[in-house]
Amino acid sequence: QQPVQSPQAVILREGEDAVINCSSSKALYSVHWYRQKHGEAPVFLMILLKGGEQKGHEKISASFNEKKQQSSLYLTASQLSYSGTYFCGTEISGGATNKLIFGTGTLLAVQP
Amino acid sequence: DTEVTQTPKHLVMGMTNKKSLKCEQHMGHRAMYWYKQKAKKPPELMFVYSYEKLSINESVPSRFSPECPNSSLLNLHLHALQPEDSALYLCASSQDPAGTRWPEAFFGQGTRLTVV
Fold first, then answer.
1. Which is nearest to A29 in space by CA: A106, A105, A103, A100?
2. Cα separation of A102 and A107, whole Å?
3. How close is the nearest chain A Cα to the Cα of B102, in Å?
4. Which of B6, B97, B57 is nearest to A100 (CA)?
5. Which of A28, A50, A58, B30 stands the most exposed, by the fewest C-beta atoms within 10 Å?
6. CB-CB neighbors (< 8 A) of A44 in chain B
7. Nearest residue, CB atoms, A41 vs list B55, B102, B107
């Protein structure tokens, strides 16, 4: 049930771009993206609700292909503050309410 | 105020102890959650409360007992835990995930629990 993310880890220099992929074996209602810095709480980045939808948040954007059950997070011109672990989250049916299941995570390290 | 406050930040307890974790939010959210997170792993959902009622229990052992006294507070009572229960326990809240939508969740900083 848990979405699989790739790559597991990536190291960038400031200003470089990165793509993080999230793939699910289950049909997706939506995809959420969170970032968690070391020792801190996960922070919501964005949610994508429709197949083929794209969203942007500063220099971070994402796409969601409902048919392929995949989402990708694009980080452009990375900054030191982008470092952290990125999790996608997918909604699956939990009976009376859906539940959010986090993906395996991608550790991103941005170096000067 | 977009904060979820968890206390304590750190907790060390023996296997025979009884302790409680507390979580508080004042955003008017009617859904609250407990997640467990092991090192270098994603958060794992434990419980979901919707309008103060338990709506999801992810087959969590009975040594973990959640409680939602009111719409702002969420507790997790711990009893007879095992060393493998040591983890970061995260509380989160959101607007009620009615229907097929799971709204943005706000997370607390977590309680780092060590069972000895």
1. A100
2. 14
3. 7
4. B97
5. A50
6. 104-106
7. B107
